[in-house]
Design a protein that fits this description.
Blueprint (H helix, E strand, L loop, with lengths): L2 H6 L2 H22 L7 H21 L3 H34 L2 H12 L5 H16 L2 H18 L4 H18 L4 H10 L3 H30 L4 H14 L8 H11 L4 H19 L1 H8 L6 H13 L9 H6 L9 H19 L2 H12 L3 H19 L2 H18 L4 H15 L7 H10 L3 H4 L4 H16 L12
Helix pairs in contact: 2-3, 2-18, 3-17, 4-13, 4-15, 4-17, 5-7, 5-11, 6-7, 6-8, 6-10, 7-8, 7-22, 8-10, 9-20, 9-21, 10-21, 10-24, 12-13, 14-15, 17-22, 18-19, 19-20, 19-21, 19-24, 20-21, 21-24
């Protein structure tokens, strides 16, 4: 966007589409609750996009082609996320029908005591996400299994999802294999390991606070008795062929991730392996899904396609377990895919019209002292997550927006990269219409607004970034010597 365009774009006008979006989303969520994702939220985003377009063309005479190009660019960036989301749906269906997730739940109930379940889930997801560099993959695999275990133990969905997401995003944030970590450091021009080391000053205290909360909540959060868990274990054994051999599939998946294969390739391979395991290990489940009494290659193929693409309900004889093993496949992801497309449309027209850039000037004017510079950076990361619906765009826009300001104030680039990650990366999952919030809500089967208050790490991280800046802890000028 040219400087002349930025100057003549009024902040007041630029705030109108955002205000319309917030108002419509609030009304939609109030009217439809968790079902808002089925159409109301999408219509809200498209309406706000239309308002932005009308203002851009009517007041600033911006050509439609310019707005369309911005939308297309935004859509292009979202394409990998959409494909990954569909493959996660396939994994959810095939890993359940093959008995992989039931096996994880079965052994998890034997190993994880209710009193340590929440902090243990957070730590498990943190370690896996750290090793893999992917919060999405961690949540779609072990996270789904932990949701099942937590529900069986009687924990509220919000607490379970909050612990899983907190751990997954901690690991993703400090992993050298994480795309967001690499993106934040490269945008600010900071060496990767220097960026990660500096982030530990805010990330470690945030995780400690989160684990403390989860430990306290875990001591009183479970309502399940030993008899309840034993009943679920028995039902799992009666419905599925529980075998440690099935854990070979998640093990190989972890190896593929560690070898840095593309996420799309890894997830497709994981679904393919699970499909084979389903046919071999769960012949009765195959017949139930295919709705036939006769086993054959064609019926096995029908069961695989059904499990991967559509809703699958299995009768276990246990009402709670029935809900745990119900999956929606790739088809269950379509509402989220639709929402991502509409969110990218809104972000595109806001950026292409110059309104996003005009609003960002507010944050620059607020930045005077070091703490206000960091606070403005954090606020900008959160704002761009709200306005664009994509964490990658938020990281890039925030990093580029504040780069010159940090140089003018002689502040280190690694302070910029850390502030960007402490906001844009971790808050994306807390926003219902952001691609991260939509995806994790769909994958875990928990509404974003339900789990948001319990994502302690994600809430504390941006606050901790500002607190550390206010204390001046390890905050250096560019010409100062430091370790």
């Amino acid at each position: 966007m040219k400087n002349s365009q930025i100057k003549k774009t009024s902040v007041t006008i630029a705030l109108i589409p955002l205000a319309v979006l917030v108002l419509l989303l609030s009304l939609t969520i109030h009217l439809f609750g968790g079902d808002a994702i089925a159409g109301g939220s999408q219509l809200s985003l498209l309406t706000a996009s239309a308002v932005c377009t009308a203002l851009a063309i009517g007041i600033y005479r911006i050509k439609w082609q310019r707005l369309e190009d911005a939308i297309v660019t935004n859509m292009r960036s979202a394409t990998p996320a959409i494909i990954i989301l569909l493959l996660i749906g396939a994994i959810a269906g095939t890993w359940m029908a093959s008995g992989i997730i039931p096996t994880l739940i079965y052994y998890g109930l034997k190993i994880l005591h209710p009193s340590i379940f929440l902090p243990a889930s957070c730590i498990i997801c943190a370690v896996i996400s750290l090793l893999t560099g992917s919060s999405w993959t961690t949540i779609a695999t072990i996270g789904v299994a932990l949701m099942g275990i937590g529900r069986a133990l009687g924990f509220d969905d919000g607490w379970i999802a909050g612990a899983i997401i907190s751990g997954a995003y901690f690991g993703d944030k400090i992993s050298m294999m994480s795309d967001t970590t690499v993106l934040a450091s490269s945008t600010a021009g900071v060496p990767l390991f220097s960026h990660i080391k500096y982030m530990m000053l805010t990330t470690t205290p945030s995780l400690i606070i989160a684990l403390t909360v989860f430990i306290i909540a875990g001591l009183s959060g479970s309502t399940a008795t030993i008899a309840d868990t034993m009943t679920i274990e028995s039902s799992l054994q009666q419905t599925f062929n529980i075998s440690a051999w099935l854990l070979v599939v998640p093990l190989i998946t972890g190896i593929l991730i560690a070898r840095k294969l593309p996420a799309i390739v890894t997830l497709f391979t994981a679904a393919f392996m699970a499909a084979i395991a389903m046919v071999i290990a769960q012949p009765d489940i195959v017949l139930q899904i295919a709705q036939t009494d006769t086993a054959s290659a064609m019926m096995s193929l029908k069961a695989i396609i059904t499990a991967a693409t559509t809703s699958t309900s299995l009768e276990t004889g246990n009402e709670l377990l029935n809900s745990l093993v119900t999956t929606r496949g790739m088809g269950g992801m379509m509402d989220t895919v639709w929402l991502i497309i509409c969110a990218m449309c809104f972000g595109g027209v806001m950026y292409g019209s110059g309104m996003l850039t005009a609003i960002s000037q507010i944050f620059l004017r607020m930045a005077r002292r070091t703490v206000s510079v960091v606070a403005s950076t954090v606020g900008s990361g959160l704002f761009f997550n709200l306005a664009t619906g994509d964490q990658y765009i938020s990281i890039i826009l925030t990093g580029n927006l504040f780069k010159e300001l940090y140089k003018e104030r002689e502040l280190e680039d690694r302070l910029l990269s850390r502030s960007v990650e402490d906001s844009a990366t971790v808050t994306s999952v807390l926003i219902p219409w952001n691609s991260c919030g939509m995806t994790q809500s769909t994958v875990l089967g928990v509404a974003t607004m339900t789990y948001m208050p319990y994502c302690i790490f994600n809430i504390v991280s941006p606050i901790m970034s500002i607190i550390v800046a206010a204390l001046g802890w390890k905050i250096y000028k560019r010409n100062q010597c430091h370790e």
